[in-house]
Task: structure prediction
Amino acid sequence: MSADEVHRRINAVWRIESAKIIGALARMVRDIGAAEELAQDALVAALEQWPAQGVPDKPAAWLMQAAKHRALDLLRRRKLHAGKEDEIGYELDTQHAIAQSEFAEAVDAALDDDVGDDLLRLVFTACHPVLSPEARVALTLRLLGGLSTDEIARSFLVPEATIAQRIVRAKRALAAARVPFEAPRAAELGARLASVLEVIYLVFNEGYSATAGDDWMRPALCEEALRLGRILAGLMPDEPEVHGLVALMEIQASRSAARVDAQGEPVLLLEQNRARWDQVLIRRGLSSLERAEALGGALGPYALQAAIAACHARARTAEATDWSRIASLYEALAQLAPSPIVELNRAVALSMAIGPAAGLALVDALRDEPQLQGYHLLPSVRGDLLAKLGRKAEARAEFENAASLTRNARERKLLLMRAQACSGSLMLPPL
Result:
């Protein structure tokens, strides 16, 4: 096996196993920053040794063992340091005893393979609400996705130094806040789980509809979010909203191949070739939605959005879409999690179910919403509804406004095409 092949093998194993390794180490040393450094040390050892010695039969186990040996060395140094301080009078005997006890516990922990619990702790720690959403996303992709700082930076089109600073500050913030490496108790679970789901969906959305740059989509981010969602569903099988989020992502991801043409230009929903929708992902999504519904209780925000996506997935043609049901689901979502963006989506559904005038009335009521100021989809939706009503000059102005607000080059081109279409006979379908 060539050195390049060995390096590819190492990278593949690392991408799959790094979260488990970091989780196990964090349980031992009680410090996420130190755990990641120890895991990276094991990775460096593999990069140094495997090209010469060959890839081990069980590469994941080799990395885990190497990392745990380094963690135990760190704990021994901590214990020795505590002992020296004790000898010169800086530490009490009880503190020395605690250090001894912690070391013994860590040795016991190193012998355990409680991977599921470790991963769950790592998920909730990386997505802790004490961090900003941007920091949670960066830290989650680094610790749970195994992505390098450069890969994360390229995915979000920001400088590598920016991502590096976010990760460093996130680790410091967790340490300063003394965030315990543990899954939240029942009383805290709802709020903490909401933060975790938000992070995963933020990653997915950035991949599904890139906010900036030259590409309409970034499939790698969608795949990473799906992987994280599936892991979480396996760790928390009795949480309906986890299955709801997975269902939503699976169904939306099923359209990926149909959302761009051969040149990478966007293809709008009603114009997509549904034969190109991934039926495997659709079946998986519908199965996850059924799982969420079977767990009982009212559907949460993600499960409701998944139910909306399912309406599109079940329609063999655009004309067969049950827009009335979609509008009613958006109404339920608006009552459960009210927001101007939900109302904007409900306006689109109403326009399709009842007529563009009904949708326009709802959109016009949103024009002064602070959250939607500068949001390019507000004038985009309004332009579409005005065009359907024959108010083409107004529609053109709205599309041009929307084009000036988006930071995505492909989307800007599409919106300018829609503006130009308002000057002639060409009509394009809604987003």
Q: What stands out?
A: Residues 88-100, 106-113, 425-431 have pLDDT under 50 and may be disordered.
